[in-house]
Amino acid sequence: MDTALTTEQHEIRRALRDLLARHGEPGAIPAAVGTAEGYDPALWRRLAGELGLPGLALAEEYGGAGCTTTELALACEETGRALLPSPLLATAALAAPLIAALGTPDQRAALLPRIADGTLTAALALPGGSLATALALTGDNHDGTWAGGGRAGGIQARGEEGERRLYGEAGRVLDGHSAGLLLVAAHAGGYPRSHTQLFLVPGDAPGLTLTRLTALDETRPLARVELRDTPAEPLGADDTADAATALADIGRTAAAILAAEAVGTAAGALERTVEYVKTREQFGRAIGSFQAVKHRLADLYVRVEAARSAAYHAARDPESGPLALAQALEAARITTGEAVQLHGGIGFTWEHEAHRYLKRAAGDELLFGPVHRLRDHAAERAGLFGPADAASGVPHGAGVR
C-alpha cells in the first residue's frame, strides 16, 4: 500500500506541529486543563481560525476545507503527539459526522458552519457510558444496551412531533462539560415503537446540568450530563430513525481517526524517551549507548511505525478502522509503559510528561477499547472463524493455532 502523503498533507502536518511546538512550553498542559473549559480557548481559536482543524473533513458548502478523513487523522496524530487538550475529537470526529449524515438541511446549515469555524463545540452523550459499544467497535450496537437498558433506563424522550423533553443521565461524556451543543441518545416512541434516537440539546438549555468529572487522563475531560425536562430537537427529519446504524457507520471512520491520534501519543512518548537516553548518563556514559536500551527502542520504533501504517490505511479504508485502532492502542500502551521505565525514577513522577503519556494511553483504552474486544469483534464481523458449530457453539477453526 502506498502511504506517501501529498504536498498539502505534509503542509498541514508541518504547520500544526510548528504551532503546537510554539505553545509547548513547560506548564502549558497543566494550565490548559486547569481552565473551566479543560483546554486553552485562545489556542483553540487559533487552531480553528488559522488552520481550520474542526472543518478539515467538512464540505466546503458548510465552511469546511472539503478534505478527507486522512487530513483529519493527520491533524489528530499531531495533537496526540503533543497531548493537546482540545475538543477536536469530540466535535470533529464524533458529533460533526452525525450532524452531516442525519441532520436536515436547516440543521446542517445552522450548525456545521459554526463547527467549522470553531465557534461551536459539540459532544456525544450516551447514557450507557460506552463509546466503543455505541460505535459498534467492540460489539453489535443494535441490542440497545449501550443506550442505557431500554425503555426503563437511560434517557427518555417524551412529547410528540417537533420539540421533545428529555429525562435522564449520561456519564463519561467526552468534553461534555464545555460543549456548546450535545447530541443526546434517548429512547423515543413509547412502549409500542421504542427505539433510540439522537437529539440536539444546546449547552445552555434549561434543565440541563453539566458536571466535570475526575478522569485518569486530565487532558481528556469527561462529564456527567443530567437532563430534567430539558427541551430537545430530534436530529434529522425522520422521527422514527434509529441511532444505532448511524453510530456504527461513523464508528469505523472515528476509529481510524482515534488510531492516528493514539499513534501520535506513542510517537511523542518515544521521541521524548530517545532524547532522554541520549543525555542521561550512568557508569560514565549515556544510557542510550547500551545495547539493551537500543534494542528496546528499536522494537518500540517498529511497533509505532506498524501502527502508523495501519492507521493511514484505515483513514483511506475505514472498514479496517477497528483493527487499526486495536493496533494503535496496543502500541501506545506498550510504548508509554516502556517510556516510563526508560526514564527511570523520574518517569514515575506524577507530573512528569512520561507519566502523562502513560495516562493518555491507559485512558484511551478504557474509553475506546479494550484491545482484545476490538479484535474479537473485527474477527466476528469478518467471519474469520466461520459459523458456530451447532453442538458446541464454538466457531469452526477457533481451536486451531
Automatic annotation (TrEMBL):
InterPro entries associated with the record:
AcylCo_DH-like_C, AcylCo_DH/oxidase_C, AcylCoA_DH/ox_N, AcylCoA_DH/ox_N_sf, AcylCoA_DH/oxidase_NM_dom_sf
Where is the organism placed in the taxonomic lineage, from the top?
Bacteria, Bacillati, Actinomycetota, Actinomycetes, Kitasatosporales
Q: Where is the Acyl-CoA dehydrogenase/oxidase N-terminal domain?
A: 6-118
By what name is this protein known? Acyl-CoA dehydrogenase
One Pfam family, short name please? Acyl-CoA_dh_1
**Highest taxon of the lineage:** Bacteria
Its required cofactor(s), as named, are: FAD
> What organism, scientifically named, is this protein from?
Streptomyces parvus
Q: What are the protein's UniProt keywords?
A: FAD, Flavoprotein, Oxidoreductase
